[in-house]
């Protein structure tokens, strides 16, 4: 009787759905190779192309928020915006179409650089190769691929003009780490405090940090539970199209109502560097979370005439 009582609630179509998803969704347990200076090829190109072709609403929303975070008020002026880790150029193309700004693309993978070049973008393999400093840098789903992410943030800071701005979008919540994260070579998913601390440690002033895509947490939990599949069920192009058309628009509304302050599968972070950046201060050991370049410069005896530090 006890067994019958326990099994009873599982009668009906639901167990069949669970069985089908487990059956058709292949497991990806081994982590694909992780990107580094010595291993520059990206393992998630297929996923990038699927996202480009299937997540139109989602991608437009991300670009809109990144644009707002960079506080670009006049798209007609000759602005230099850098897409750090541009991938196939999905977001860069949307920037060009929507705002009339063709971002400078930084991409370590040579195959992806060819794709970016074919789309007409100016492309560099490293941000340090840029000939001049810029006013704005955004990065979407990139830092999680970099082992030493603080050093990468410092490289970005060194190429920003005084008062330059940074907009970041990354995967959130380590508990959601799934087969898809392994496949595309993620080192981590970020906690909110972790991301803020690392950006501050690189010499930025963090202005805002909030979650995005609250309902996406449920979808990512499904990936974690059932596994990731490229051609069927979770992770397929058809599932991405359904998510983009029906689930994400509802998720945006839930975020707007306040869930962005509580939970989400991704994090946005907007930051700036002070007017008085000391370019000689470049080691992360010289920074302390919550302190700006200006304070470090003051403590070392550097004279500063003007310094803008905003309190969070």
Structure description:
By secondary structure, the chain is an alpha/beta fold. The chain has one domain (33-299): Rossmann fold (3-Layer(aba) Sandwich). Helices cover 40% and strands 14% of the residues. It is built from 12 helices and 7 strands. The protein has helices spanning 2-7, 13-24, 45-54, 56-70, 90-99, 110-118, 149-158, 179-183, 192-201, 216-226, 237-256, 293-299, and strands spanning 81-84, 104-106, 123-124, 134-140, 160-171, 205-212, 266-272. It has a 7-stranded mixed sheet, with helices on both faces. Helix 3 (45-54) packs across helix 11 (237-256) and helix 4 crosses helix 5. The radius of gyration is 21 Å and the shape is globular. Mean pLDDT is 78; it is low at 1-32 and 279-312.
Low-confidence stretches: 1-32, 279-312
Topology-level CATH name: Rossmann fold
User: Quick one: CATH superfamily?
Assistant: Vaccinia Virus protein VP39
Q: Topology as H/E string?
A: HHHHEHEHEEHEHHEHHEH
Structural class: alpha/beta
Quickly count the domains.
Answer: 1
- Tell me the span between the first and last alpha carbons: 60 Å
Bin the helical content. Answer: 40-55%
Number of strand segments = 7
What's the rounded overall pLDDT mean? 78
CATH architecture: 3-Layer(aba) Sandwich
Sum up the overall morphology in one term: globular
Strand order, sheet with most strands: 3-2-1-4-5-7-6
Largest sheet: 7 strands, mixed
* Rg from alpha-carbon coordinates: 21 Å
- Determine and state the CATH class: Alpha Beta
Q: Estimate what percentage of residues fall within beta strands.
A: 5-15%
| Count of alpha and pi helical runs | 12
